[in-house]
Specification:
Number of strands: 27
Strand order of the largest sheet: 5-4-3-6-2-1-7-8
CATH architecture of the largest domain: 2-Layer Sandwich
Largest sheet: 8 strands, mixed
Strand content: 15-25%
Distance between the termini: 76 Å
CATH superfamily of the largest domain: Histidine kinase-like ATPase, C-terminal domain
Length: 644
């Protein structure tokens, strides 16, 4: 008996549908792209129950004739390709002819369409891919497609769907990306009767960004544009002053198609080198326009990844467009002052006057007698207290020692000898006599000045280099330690060992943070676990959250960046109930609470870090990087050719 079976068309359709339709967000993406290809100027997408129970997409595009309304649900039926030569330059969003067939195979579908210029429309009903009814129907020009009960006939896929809130958030994120790529089309998204966003469709990317990403994001963006060798780049990049904790606000488009590209991501971030803080990422909305033959979009089932024919040219085009925008913002502005302002700000003549020694002595009264033990002012230097010829008084003010009062001032009054006030400057603080100056050591030892730290335990702290690396000596070895990485590991291990909720600090001024819908859903699902870690984060409107509390060891200035990074970790690993997801959140908390590279650190803290490293308790940072490098005396001797 043969072991090889030929699958029925129905099973084959279900398998193919699983490649195209992964979740409700896939349906939203395919239907919006079909509406774009139909030349729509206005599109409304509506979903209920996270898109699992109801999705409706309505457009005012070209519509379809009755004979095409039934054919469009057949596999590999498309109006966008005729032969293999069309694959050499794909200029439409769709081209495979699989989307509608895949959607219909796993749902109950209703299509209503009317071709522009015709008098009557058509209605098509399908269940599990089988057409049950085709009939004339009065309807406006354009197309409306309704998808109900997604995956009702594929329980294997249905049980892997997430909550309605999570699926709705994914749908919103996909729709937002599609809308950003087509600013000339007005896109409206409605969830459970509530409008989530609306793009104006005026063709201006700036107004589209303002509507979809919000005022705060729009304010931080800088316009960028370049064109060279058939590659045009246009869009906006974020100001270096407004970095983000993750890459969720980076959007890339190729010929209007939303894509994911590590090449473009690297090009943008390279332009921010040495201008953006380490661990921060720029926001950007960048669109590429190039010939259809110079890019292959048929490399991924979801068509989100593309391959460029000349990646070097594309990289350079995006890099220099972003770099010109960043450098344009950092140029120093030219300040123009009016003549009146220049005159007011000009230094006054004779405000500072330099006296020769003979001029200064000539201004002193003849009866000025120096008090014993007090040195006279040096020639050419006026006394800080000044000289009054009218009163015949000379005042020499000696700067008080830190924390001391000004009672040590010596005052000479006309006709009387110098006298010190009761709180006079001690003799040892006065200017030393020439004899004392000769007997004082010429220089103090380095140990007395604290330049050479005392040994601590079984190692000796030398200091820190470039405010980033700790140098320590142990036996015949020199140890170099990344202080941030080592301290981050120490904090991470301490947090892992705690079997109770972390201490929390309430922010004096709560921080409001705008996030994408799927990020807010992740935080909502993880609320209890985040509260145990010291966070208090609440929804604030439809597209924002408010941060009220943070873990006690972290800096309040890092609140927004920390939550953005946590969203990225949760997006990778899900809600922090599992070990991997919880570790990801703890990584972020430890990183923000650790000593920062580039800042000076007290010797006591450095000693604690070195002690942990030398004891072998800290070897790698939470991300897996080594925290220390050891150079033996023998290695150093070889480097200096002391031994062969």
């Amino acid at each position: 008996m043969s072991e090889i079976n030929i699958l029925s068309p129905h099973v084959a359709d279900l398998i193919a549908a699983g490649e195209v339709v992964e979740r409700p967000a896939s349906v939203i993406k395919e239907l919006l792209e079909n509406a774009f290809d139909a030349g729509a100027g206005n599109i409304t997408a509506e979903l209920r129950g996270g898109g699992m129970t109801y999705i409706r997409v309505t457009d005012d595009g070209c519509g379809m004739l009755p004979e095409d309304a039934g054919l469009c649900f057949m596999r590999h039926a498309t109006s966008k390709l005729r032969d293999e030569r069309g694959l050499e330059g794909i200029g439409t969003m769709g081209f495979r002819g699989e989307a509608l067939a895949a959607i219909a195979a796993v749902s109950r579908t209703e299509l209503t369409t009317r071709k522009k210029g015709t008098q009557q429309g058509t209605r098509v009903l399908l269940e599990a891919g089988e057409i049950s009814e085709i009939a004339p129907r009065g309807c406006p020009e354009g197309t409306t497609l309704i998808v109900r009960d997604l995956f009702f006939n594929t329980p294997a896929r249905l049980k892997f769907m997430k909550t309605d809130k999570a699926e709705a958030a994914a749908c919103a994120a996909v729709a937002l990306r599609c809308a950003l790529g087509r600013p000339e089309v007005s896109v409206r998204l409605i969830k459970d009767g509530e409008e989530l966003f609306f793009s104006p469709g005026d063709g201006q990317l700036s107004s589209c960004i303002y509507s979809l990403l919000g005022r705060d994001t729009a304010k931080e963006l800088l316009a960028c544009a370049s064109e060279d060798e058939g590659i045009a780049v246009s869009g906006f990049v974020g100001s270096p002053r407004a970095g983000h904790g993750n890459r969720t606000k980076q959007f890339f488009f190729c010929n209007g198609r939303s894509i994911k590209s590590q090449l473009l991501q690297a090009a943008v971030e390279q332009a921010y080198r040495n201008t953006l803080l380490t661990g921060r990422y720029p926001a950007c909305v960048i669109g590429l326009r190039l010939s259809f033959g110079a890019v292959d979009v048929n490399v991924h089932p979801a068509k989100t990844e593309v391959k460029f024919r000349d990646e070097k040219k594309v990289f350079d085009a995006v890099y220099y467009a972003a770099l010109s925008a960043v450098e344009g913002e950092s140029r120093t502005a030219e300040i123009s002052l009016s003549p009146a302002t220049r005159a007011a700000a000009a230094p006054k003549k004779d405000f500072y006057k330099t006296l020769r020694a003979d001029e200064f002595r000539a201004g002193l009264p003849q009866n000025a007698v120096r008090a014993p033990g007090v040195a006279p002012p040096r020639a050419g230097t006026p006394a800080s207290g000044g000289f009054s010829a009218e009163k015949g008084t000379v005042v020499w003010n000696r700067a008080p020692a830190p924390g001391a009062s000004a009672g040590g001032t010596l005052v000479r009054e006309s006709g009387t000898p110098y006298r010190a006030s009761p709180r006079a400057v001690p003799a040892e603080e006065r200017c030393p006599s020439p004899e004392a100056a000769q007997t004082e050591p010429a220089e103090t030892s380095a140990a007395a000045q604290g330049l050479i730290p005392e040994p601590h335990g079984n190692f000796r702290l030398i200091g820190e280099a470039m405010k980033t690396y700790i140098l320590a000596e142990k036996d015949d070895s020199l140890i170099l330690i990344d202080k941030h990485a080592a301290h981050e590991r120490m904090i991470f291990d301490r947090l892992k060992k705690q079997d109770r909720a972390l201490m929390s600090q309430t922010l004096l001024v709560p921080v409001t943070l705008r996030l994408l819908a799927d990020e807010i859903a992740l935080l909502e699902r993880s609320r209890e676990a985040l509260e145990d870690l010291g966070f208090e984060i609440e929804p604030f409107g439809a597209d924002s959250v408010v941060i009220r509390s943070l873990p006690a060891d972290t800096d309040a200035a890092d609140a927004a960046a920390m939550v953005e990074e946590i969203c990225e970790q949760l997006g990778k690993n899900g809600a922090p109930s599992g070990k991997d997801a919880l570790d990801g959140v703890l990584h972020t908390v430890a990183c923000k609470a650790a000593i920062r590279a580039g800042r000076s650190t007290e010797a006591g803290e450095l000693n604690q870090i070195v002690a942990e490293v030398v004891a072998g308790r800290v070897k790698y940072c939470p991300h897996g990087r080594p925290v220390a490098v050891t150079l033996t005396k023998k290695q150093l001797d070889k480097e200096f050719s002391r031994i062969v």
